[in-house]
Amino acid sequence: MLESIEVTKKFVGKTAVDGITMQLEPGHIYAMLGPNGSGKTTWMKMAAGLIKPTSGQIRYMGQPISVETKNDIAYMSTEPYFYDWMTVGDVGKYYADFFKDFSMDKYDYLLEKMELLKKLKVKSLSSGMMAKLKVAVTMARDAKVYMLDEPLNGIDLLARDSVMNMILMSADEGKTLLISSHLVEELESVVDKAIFIKNSKFAGIYDVEALRTEDNMSLADKYRQVFSDVDMGGIQ
Amino acid sequence: MQYDSKIPIYLQVIDSIKTDIINERIKCGQKLPSSRELAVTYTINPNTAARVYQELEREGVCYTKRGMGTFVTEDEGVIAMLKKEMAEEALDVFLKSISELGISIDEAIELLKQREE
In A40-147, where does DSSP find H-type helix? Predict the structure, then answer.
């Protein structure tokens, strides 16, 4: 459904994404894992149509990423993108203007679950509340693909649980979810597939339950194996 | 729920549901949440949740009524067996630790009796 074919993105003096080929299918929640600066955000921005690859192509349902694919692909970036004067309610209206698939009912429902009041000003929100708001407004869209860039960053344990629940409430067999994070442990129970990005390159995709069933390994173990090249023997 | 990240999540959720059935926190014949609700309640992947019900059905602990959802078996014999099986598993863990400590079964029984008093 979402295909990345030999995708490369070069910035001046730096290759941010280097020949990534992979395929994402509906009905799965994917983790995109890699240390900071490994190219996760750049790849997502290309799939969201915000920047263009230097070479290669990302395709959604066989079509190159374009204005049309934005209708089906919801993207949440790491940086905050609301105006300070907005209230939580305004953020919903702003999204409703932009996206035809935005459901105000679902937004209201998620806000209620997250205990976020519509009259609150965006600039008065704590980082935990801001994280919940960003995820709520993204998941209130009825998209086919959701890409969340670091939804768990800088928020406490309880807020993380709420964010995870919101994500799970929206998951179904027709949707593809992609979550980038370096908080691997937080994703252990929620994602079923994990994509590793190492030094801008694709470094494998794994079925997370299969890692546990067949290799007796947690996702965090695999992460350490992929990224540290350190022997896993002995005391773990 | 806290998971052991090295053990398949579906097995951990199955054990938790079986324990609830044995303790009658979930009753015989009771309707279980949809697999989507189960995913949210346990913070697990929806595919894992579906697998939980597949396995429980395969073991005869649950059954699906078409269009109605998943229900716990009404067969109390199955639940009695479940209790026995889980007790055996708990014993296996106990006996393994005891033998690693070099304690014989008789000594272990003695220790258990002391604990009882």
Answer: 40-47, 88-98, 104-114, 127-139
Cβ contacts of B5 on chain A, cutoff 8 Å: 185, 188-189, 212, 218-220
Cβ separation A219–B40 shorter than 8 A = no
Closest CB from A171, A191, A220 relative to B5: A220
Q: Domain locations in chain B?
A: 9-116
Asked if residues A7 and A20 have their Cβ atoms less than 8 Å apart, the reply is yes
For the stretch A227-236, pLDDT in tens is 886 444 444 3
Nearest Cα of chain A lies from the Cα of B103 at a distance, in angstroms, of 25
Fold of domain B9-116: Arc Repressor Mutant, subunit A (1.10.10)
| Predicted TM-score (pTM) above 0.95 | no
Residue labelled with tokens 């009404």: B74
* Contact assessment for residue A202 and residue A30, using Cβ atoms and an 8 Å cutoff: no
> Does the interface predicted TM-score (ipTM) exceed 0.90?
no
Token reading at A113: 């679950």
pLDDT at B16 over 80: yes
Cβ pair B54, B19 in contact under 8 A: no
Distance in angstroms (rounded) separating the CA atoms of residues A163 and A180? 13
Task: For residue A155, name the pLDDT band (cuts at 50, 70, 90).
Answer: confident
